[in-house]
Amino acid sequence: MLYCVWVILLYWRLIAPVVGLDNGDADTLNFKVEPVKYSNYDSTYDRFCFTMELSPTEELTSNVLFTFYVLDVLPFATDAGRFGGTSKSRGRQALHMSIKDPISGNLLRSTRNLKSGVTHVELNAGDSHKLDVCLANLVYDSSWSSLDIWEFVAVQLKTKEQLAWSKLGSLQEEYQVQQDVDNCMNKISHTINGEIFQELRSTETEHRNINESLCNAFVITLIVMIAFISSPPVILAYYCIKYKGFPGVRSPRA
To answer: What is the assigned CATH class of domain 2-160?
Structure first.
């Protein structure tokens, strides 16, 4: 059990930053929501509710963006297929979400099936700088023929101004990277078309001429050596034929 929880926490620490939810961010909340049978559900006690607050400098901001990341986790390391699958895979489990204004009590946004993965919810908060978020992990199957899963949830609250500044920072970083790439390309172009390239080309031409000269000298030397080695037997055979005839042939007078 401890090993399973450790693996879940490690996975959560690794995957949350990938989807843009930093666990160390002050605007991000991380928690788990345990399953509740719908037949035993009491909205007064079984809902998991919390309040997210905007900073005073952002109090007058009208549009806010909630980012939910939901991860399905089995409470035990087991093969769900051997136990009839999970309630969620069979369409009998859903994560309910609602966002309310605690001052007026108005329901701003709700869903009866918050999907796994990343979900963005944009809404108009009006003049309120506090928002109540409630979650309920409900299971509609009372037969216990399938496994109920936990929901690990990370919630992040940002204003459109914060997102704009964040995007501006990303664009500035991208622009700086592009500037560095352009500078490198200019240096490479200067190297190719400038004096350094001319020197390299001149050096390469000299080396090629030297190699060709060495090759020609080697071929000539090889031909001379072959001629020098093969000339004595040819000369000897010539004198033998001229003055004594072919070797091994005797005169008829003998």
So the answer is: mainly beta
